[in-house]
Structures are given as C-alpha cells and as structure tokens.
Amino acid sequence: MPSLLHEALLELFRNRPRLLAPELLDELGVKVPKFTKVRLESIDFTQITPTEYRADLVVVLHRRRKPVMATVVDAQRPCRSG
C-alpha cells in the first residue's frame, strides 16, 4: 500500500507538473529542452504480452504543440526488513 509520502510526492507533480523540469535539471543533471507546455499522460504501460507496467505519473513537455521530452515518475522508498 502506498505511503502518505509516496502519495504526497505524486500529488505535488500532478498539481504542478512544471516543477519536474527544474528538478531534473538541478538534481539529476539532465538537460531539459526548451518547452512551452507541460501535460500529464496516461500512466498505463501495458503491452500485448501479459506483463503490465504502470507508472505513478507521466509528464510530457511540449514546444509548439510537439512533445520534446517525457518523464516517468515512480516514487520509491527504501524497504524496511524485520
């Protein structure tokens, strides 16, 4: 079951997906292309084979109505044993 922290992180980006671009640039060193629009996309990554992949959130940056970068957000926390 997702934790409160997990859901809070996702809600932050759901409500303000533009926050993701500066975070990538600052924290991960990823060069973010110029963009004019940010859009949330489907989180379902199901394939024809029975394996199913789902993300917590998918954010797409657009420039002049064309996608220039997509980012999959999947909040992970360390596992606790015992």
Task: Give the SSE layout.
Layout: H1 4-15, H2 20-28, E1 37-41, E2 57-63, E3 66-73
Antiparallel strand pairs: 1-2, 2-3
Shape: globular
Q: Report the count of strand segments.
A: 3
Task: Give the distance, in angstroms, between the N- and C-terminal Cα atoms.
Answer: 17 Å
Order of helices and strands: HHEEE
Give, in spatial order, the strands making up the sheet with the most strands. 1-2-3
By secondary-structure content and strand pairing, the structural class works out as alpha+beta
Q: Over the alpha carbons, how many angstroms does the gyration radius reach?
A: 15 Å
Number of domains: 1
Beta percentage is 15-25%
Helix content: 25-40%
Give a quick account of the main beta sheet: strands, pairing sense, barrel closure.
3 strands, antiparallel
Mean pLDDT: 80
Low-confidence stretches: none
Short description:
The chain has 82 residues and is α+β, with helices and mostly antiparallel strands.
Q: What report would you give on this structure?
A:
This protein is an alpha+beta fold and 82 residues long. It has one domain. It contains two helices and three strands; from the N terminus they run ααβββ. The chain has helices at residues 4-15, 20-28; strands spanning 37-41, 57-63, 66-73. The protein has a three-stranded antiparallel beta sheet, with helices on one face. The mean pLDDT is 80.
Characteristic key phrases:
single chain, 82 residues, alpha+beta, three-stranded antiparallel beta sheet, 2 helices, 3 strands, globular
